[in-house]
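From the pipeline queue, job 12 of 40. The input is one protein chain; the requested action is below.

Action: predict structure.
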Amino acid sequence: MSYIQYGSGLNQLMFGDGSTGDVNLVADYTMTEDAYCNNLIVNAGVTVITAGYRIFVKNVCELYGTIQNNGGNASGTTAGAGATTGVLGGGSTGGAGQSGLFSATGLAGTNITSNALGGRGASGGSAGGTSGGAAGTMAITIANEGGPNCISTPPCCFLGKTCASSTTNKIYGGSGAGGGAISGIIITGTSGAGGGGAGIIMLYARILYGTGTITANGGNGSDASSGNAGGGGGGGAGIVIVGSTVDLDTTGITIIVNGGTPGNGTGSGTAGSTGSTGKIIKMIITE
């Protein structure tokens, strides 16, 4: 976790112009564009899925519900989807579960080919000496684009992009996990699928308080169904960036960036592994 303090020269740039107006959310909401709120209330029991978009609050943000950009959970042989890409990069999809009559190596999670700074997904479970699928690989931001710590510094921490001039320089979250293997003859059984990687949450609010939660967790792997089959791995967690004039540690708000939990194996199959944790970046902006 990074904790960074910035001076007064940046405060107006970071909190936006309030052009979206006052927003009081009383039902679940999935974002489709950046929000430039004057004031924002997320009521208890309400979930906001950021879906790759940023939240700026010119004045006061009251958070009693949940702001999230998690990776998708696997279900049966269907892999968990990666968090959606918007203005900010998302996560990648896990590997599907296997089925069939003969032994098969687990399927790998989807790779992130550029600027991945979240957690890596985990491998799927093995079965009878047959390997589970590998997690999706992650290409880390290289030095001449700002390096892996660029997300903690301006302008990358506002834009969610590296310092490169390319138009494809978005920073991405976590990678998807591998699916489980199958061993021997399976007539009806299937292995577990891998969870999806989480994305990035970016919240800048001049005043921030409440008792809510902000999460960028990796998706959970699914269980094998029967036979000798491995469980799916847990997806990699994402990145949460929060900037405010309020010290977040003095509020009741909780930030969680956990890797996804693995699915269980059956017979000689083993459980998958837990996804890697992500990053939390807290910024105090003085006025």
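Job complete. The first helix runs from residue 11 to 15.
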